[in-house]
């Protein structure tokens, strides 16, 4: 069923949450657009002007890595100071009350945690853009240390071990963190309600989770303002603005 009326969408979601014993939310870039962070696929997205490099390109040369860092900092400047939106606040509250067990997110902006979501309940499939790691030894590096040195030299940062330092996000072609994947699979297969929010559901393997939940017997709800390829298998499609639909759940 597709619901476009906001009030009816809120009622239907509320009822499904009440009936659920174990709900999981799966979030994408659409959750953060009201916070000023553009999503990936909408026309004129700044991500297209400052597109993250595929992993193989990043590894290929120091020049490519410098380009990747220039784009990363350009994007950071665009959404510096972004605050959680209504959807983040609603999900933090739903996790607090136990109505939602976990949030699996494709987002790299850290806004679920900033809204008060317990970090142990947030599974970041695509990493986190607020710090960096060495690809060789795994050491964490802080952007506040990297950026001034990069801007002064123009050289891509390197670790003391000689390894390349990369934003702690998962690039196209880069393996997803095994531990996060394991936790996401466990949460997906344990839930009886899976709510996909603000994702075009075309980026794999992340987009496989809603279908896996449904195949395992869970109900599937999709909240998005445009159609997705998985709408046909969903029990409920709430088509509209995420912030408007989720707002009452923050109370
Ligand atoms: P996407 O850009 O492919 O899809 C976002 C979807 O959200 C679109 O279908 C769009 O119509 C919808 N949408 C946008 N604003 C909305 C709103 N206010 N209400 C309802 N719907 C809205 O995003 P994706 O599926 O998450 O895939 C993009 C990839 O890029 C992800 O892997 C993610 O890691 C990365 N990314 C992350 C961020 C972030 O961290 N905030 C931002 C852009 C891209």
Can you identify the CATH superfamily of the largest domain?
TPP-binding domain
Tell me the Rg in angstroms: 19 Å
Helix content: 25-40%
CATH architecture title of the largest domain: 3-Layer(aba) Sandwich
| Strands side by side in the biggest sheet | 1-10-9-8-2-3-4
The main sheet comes to:
7 strands, parallel
- Strand residue percentage: 15-25%
Number of domains: 2
CATH names the topology of the largest domain as Rossmann fold
Count of discrete alpha- or pi-helical segments spanning 4 or more residues: 10
List keywords for this structure.
Rossmann fold; about 20% strand; seven-stranded parallel sheet; elongated; binds nicotinamide-adenine-dinucleotide; 10 helices; SIR2/SIRT2 'Small Domain'; three-stranded antiparallel sheet; 2 domains; about 250 residues; alpha/beta
Please provide a written account of the structure.
It is a single chain. The protein is an alpha/beta fold and 251 residues long. It has 2 domains: 156 residues, TPP-binding domain (Rossmann fold); 79 residues, SIR2/SIRT2 'Small Domain', CATH 3.30.1600. The chain is 37% helix and 19% strand. It is built from 10 helices and 10 strands. It has a 7-stranded parallel β-sheet with strand order 1-10-9-8-2-3-4, sandwiched between helices. Strands 6-5-7 form a 3-stranded antiparallel β-sheet. Helix 6 links the parallel strand 3 and strand 4. Helix 8 packs parallel to helix 9. The protein is elongated. The chain starts with a strand and ends in a 5-residue tail after the last helix. The relative contact order is 0.21. The mean pLDDT is 95. The structure holds nicotinamide-adenine-dinucleotide.
